[in-house]
Every structure is written in C-alpha cells, then in structure tokens.
Amino acid sequence: MYAFDFEQPKTIAEAVAALADDEAQPLSGGQTLIPTLKQRLAMPSKLVSLTAIPEMKGVCMNGNTLCIGGATPHAVVAAEASAYPALAALASNIGDPAVRNRGTIGGSIANNDPAACYPSAALASGATIVTNSREIAADDYFQGLFQTALEEGEIVTEVRFPVPQAANYQKFVQPASRFALVGVFVAKYADGVRVAVTGASNDGVFRWTEAEAALSANFSPSALDGLSVSADGMIGDLHGTPEYRAHLIGVMTKRAVAAAS
Ligand SMILES: Cc1cc2nc3c(=O)[nH]c(=O)nc-3n(C[C@H](O)[C@H](O)[C@H](O)COP(=O)(O)OP(=O)(O)OC[C@H]3O[C@@H](n4cnc5c(N)ncnc54)[C@H](O)[C@@H]3O)c2cc1C
C-alpha cells in the first residue's frame, strides 16, 4: 500500500463534492478495490468511502419495483429482497460470507466484472441504474469488459428492479473464486422474457436475444431445443474453453427456465 487521503462523507452531495478532486476514487466494500490498491494497479490520491451514507443503504418496494441502495451489502439483499426471490438467492450465493458482508451492489455494478452475478440480474430485469445525476437503463449501462456508462466521479446510488412474474439465476461456479464461470439470469415479464448471460463473453454481460424470443413464445426448457450460442467471442482460459462456455449457456438457461417454472 502507499499513502492516500481518506474521507467518509455522510451524504451523497458530500461524496460527490469529495470525488471532484483529481484522482479521487469511490470505495464501497473494497472487495475488489483494496486488492487492486495492494497490487498498485490503481493509485488514487484519495479514497471516498460510500458506506456511511444512510440514503445509499437498504432495500424497499415502490409499487412493483424493488429498490436497492448502492451501498447495500450482498448479505442484506439476500436477507431483505424477499419480494424478488431470484435476486435474493443470487445475492446469497456471491463469494463467501466476508465478501457478502462487505461487497455492495453499487460496487459490483460499477466494477462490471465479466464474471460478476449482479450485472446479469440487472440486464435481465431491465433494471434502472440510478446515479447522483441521472437514471440509466441497464441496456445502455453495461458497455463491455469492466466498462459502464458511468462518468468520472459519478456514483451508483440505487438500482431499481421491476419484479418479474417468474425468474431464476443459475451459476456454474468457478470453484476457486466463487465467481460465475457462466451465469444465466432469466426473467419473465408480462411483455416478454429477458435472458442475460455473465461469465462467458469477452464483451462482458450480454442478452441472449434468440432465447428471449423463443421463451417469450413458450416459457419452457424445450423452447430452447436447437438453439445454441456461437463460441466466437467467448472467454477461453484454464477454467474453460470458449466452446465449453458457449455450451454451458444453453445448459444453464434451460435449468433456469425449469427452476423458474
Ligand atoms: C473472493 C471473492 C469472491 C467473489 N465472488 C463473487 C461472486 O460470486 N459473484 C459476484 O458477483 N461477485 C463476486 N465478488 C465480487 C464482490 O462481490 C463485490 O461485488 C465486488 O468486489 C465489488 O463490490 P465492492 O462493494 O467491494 O466495491 P469496491 O471494491 O469498493 O469498488 C469496486 C470498484 O467500483 C467503484 N465503486 C464502488 N462503489 C461504487 C459506486 N457506488 N458508484 C460508483 N463506483 C463505485 C470503486 O471505485 C472501484 O473501482 C467476489 C469478490 C471476492 C474478493
């Protein structure tokens, strides 16, 4: 580690002001950022903690929309998002207890790791990412590997999930990290089905639109018979080849539909 300033504001407005300084960076659960600092892959001059801001914490319902504060840890989502059971289950299977008690939904969505779980839930749910300055549709927010629509100094203050009629998340766990080797989130709404895939693509989380069309017509695993995802652009590493990951997408999507049904 090396020397840096540290601030812990109590309001979103104070956090935004603190982040206006050159090379200041938000810190949430630190589950990604602290190891990055230790390796000196990032060297911000100031860390602005977002974990003491009450207006960024908690889970609530607004009509049929589940709202989760950006600084809410995964363990709290697991315990309190009972209105959206598939999302609560996803949160309860992230990492290990230490990661779930420190890591936050805002940090996960901001980091947009290609193997993270929440991006698939947000994309499959057509969620709205709320920041200190605007609201961004999930379809516009996720822009590739570790890339999002966030501007410098912009913070995720809340994520809003329309609650679907049925949903399920299936994660093929990478056993060392607990991240998704491949994860598929399926959500069925009155106007159609959305399917989002994490862990698989070199471009990060994506929607499998062919599966969405088939499942919107017939919400059953058999609707996916004959459909497959190309291995082109899939991640290949020591844990799995591109072909393996492409195959897993079909398997996990069928399992998610079966479980949601
Ligand atoms: C061992 C291990 C296992 C894990 N397993 C999983 C898993 O199975 N599934 C999964 O999805 N994730 C997993 N994670 C990731 C973890 O759950 C966190 O979501 C992730 O580390 C980021 O959240 P954080 O709150 O710790 O963010 P931090 O590490 O504090 O920050 C991450 C990045 O986001 C920025 N940032 C943080 N908060 C905000 C905000 N509100 N607005 C804008 N920018 C912000 C920071 O500046 C930094 O660049 C795992 C992590 C570890 C260490």
UniProtKB/TrEMBL annotation:
PROSITE patterns, per database record: FAD_PCMH
Molecular-function annotations in GO: FAD binding; oxidoreductase activity
SUPFAM superfamilies associated with the record: CO dehydrogenase flavoprotein C-terminal domain-like (SSF55447), FAD-binding/transporter-associated domain-like (SSF56176)
Pfam families xrefs: FAD_binding_5 (PF00941)
Superkingdom per UniProt: Bacteria
Coiled-coil region: none
The keyword Disulfide bond is annotated on this UniProt entry: no
Keyword Oxidoreductase annotated: yes
Domain FAD-binding PCMH-type: 1-166
The entry's keywords: FAD, Flavoprotein, Oxidoreductase
InterPro entries for this protein: CO_DH_flav_C, CO_DH_flav_C_dom_sf, Diverse_Substr_Oxidored, FAD-bd_PCMH, FAD-bd_PCMH-like_sf, FAD-bd_PCMH_sub1, FAD-bd_PCMH_sub2, Mopterin_DH_FAD-bd
Official protein name in the record: Carbon-monoxide dehydrogenase medium subunit
Taxonomic lineage from the root: Bacteria, Pseudomonadati, Pseudomonadota, Alphaproteobacteria, Rhodobacterales
